[in-house]
Amino acid sequence: MYNQRFLRVACVAATTLAMFLIATNLLAQPSRPGSPSPADEAAYQESVQRAVDFLRTKVQAPDGSYAGFAGPGVTAVVTTGILRNGRTPNDPLVAKSLKYLEGLIQPDGGVYQSGSLYRNYETCLGVLCFREASRDGRYDKVLDGADRFLKGRQWDEEEGHDQTSLYYGGAGYGKQERPDMSNTQFLLEALVAVGNGPDDPAIQKALVFVSRCQNLETEHNSTQFAPKNPDGGFYYTPAAGGSSKAGETPNGGLRSYGSMTYAGLKSMIYAGVGPDDPRVKAAYEWVRKHYDLQSNPGLGDAGLYYYYHTFAKALDAMGVDQVVDADGTRHDWRRELREELLRRQRPDGSWINEKNPRWLEGEPSLVTGYALLALSYCRPATQATP
Predict the structure, then answer these.
(1) How far is CA 267 from CA 198, 209, 214, in A?
(2) Which residues is 332 bridged to in the sheet?
(3) Tens digit of pLDDT for each residue in 190-208?
(4) How many CA atoms does the CB half-sphere of 324 hold within 13 Å?
(5) DSSP single-letter state for residue 26
(6) Which pLDDT score, from 0 to 100, does residue 351 have?
(7) Residue in 279, 281, 310, 280 with CA at minimum distance from that of residue 293
(8) CA 344 to mean position of chain CA atoms
(9) Cα–Cα distance between 355 and 3 in angstroms, integer?
């Protein structure tokens, strides 16, 4: 069942990407900026091996978890990153973590720690991990249950919120947490991972919320914030009075920033929004104006590795090989991101946000997981793991 649904989603995504490339005139560019050298592949492989060795020998707990004090989300991120870099579910390192996550599958279909306040978040990350490990269908029933769980916890009419509500369609950390763009992007990614297409009601509901997180006034977004800072980027949430981790403009607008803009752009693609849509055009223009691998635009060094992996996922989903920035400079983003990550890797094979531990980026397990995820989208030989 999931293989058929996954193929249907892939076909829709391929059509959308082709349309995007035509609309942005990227089909005229070379399909790849250049042939990778054996040295590039060797450096990538050596980096991944050092990271895996660090995880195996330094931080994985006997029960297979990573940073278990923070719940299962870190373990799911790390294990997904390892799987996406060529390890199999039968690798002892991976198998131990999968067994740990299996122990957190709940009767309601969620994947979370008992008593957790972050059930949506943990389940979404669990879905992405089990999807990577289920190429042979071993976790199809788990994914089916998680799909029902997540759809049942999305903010909609069942929670007393119709389409006029700024909560509508979004997802928060848990059932009662107000929705935000970060959790909603993970919801959309999880829904697509289990085979839902753009026409699925839950995905279209999520698109309503995503559109309202953009600083762009359209027929899809009439929030009070849209006209105050109309730069096309995305912020954290319009719900509960609105909030941006980058702060407010002098007139009360919510500032856009990098990680949420890439999250919003990726989410619109997953939801089937086409390249001619003003929302996609405006978001991509923001990307061109703020292309940066030294910082999370708008937030500096805060959430830097979360930004790297969201940046990679979004541009890969778009099918873009080069980003032409506002100054006309072409960026081979895969090569540039790969080189930046390898430069930042520590001697022990890990990564950590040395300047800013905000949002758990002082935890090497999580940050190493983020880095492995990002690397999986810019591998030199294959560019991205299927």
Answers:
(1) 10, 10, 12
(2) 322
(3) 999 999 999 999 999 999 9
(4) 7
(5) G
(6) 98
(7) 310
(8) 21
(9) 43
